[in-house]
What we know:
Elements: E1 9-13, H1 19-27, H2 29-33, H3 45-62, E2 66-71, E3 74-84, E4 87-94, H4 102-114, E5 121-126, H5 134-139, E6 142-149, E7 152-160
Antiparallel strand pairs: 1-2, 2-3, 3-4, 5-7, 6-7
Helix pairs in contact: 1-3
Amino acid sequence: xxxxxxxxxxxxxxxxxxxxxxxxxxxxxxxxxxxxxxxxxxxxxxxxxxxxxxxxxxxxxxxxxxxxxxxxxxxxxxxxxxxxxxxxxxxxxxxxxxxxxxxxxxxxxxxxxxxxxxxxxxxxxxxxxxxxxxxxxxxxxxxxxxxxxxxxxxxxxxxxxx
Length: 162
């Protein structure tokens, strides 16, 4: 009988990840397909360090922010909650080899959000290029419209957490 290994998922601060790993992740051409805010230039370690500094500042300002995600201790992406006006937006950016972990990581993060009294609902912004939205709907999220963010159009979804 074949057994499937389900990796242990852990969340850690982005500052615990080598900038080279984040730079390699964000420079992967697969990432640009569904990330309209990437400007097409490869990331270097300085770009990755500036990114981490900005995300850590959100932790300081809001008491919440983005994590690095690990599967069996290996970096597989980043994401988390970021305050956008009145909304807590959830983002998830996985390495291509970890795309299959998205539902699991999202469910773990949403458990965390449900335990946090500041988060009555979560929003998700997805580029219109994303065609497979069934996982988001299975979580209970509903599309509430479209928004422009930093000059790019996104589909906006909302999920009640309370």
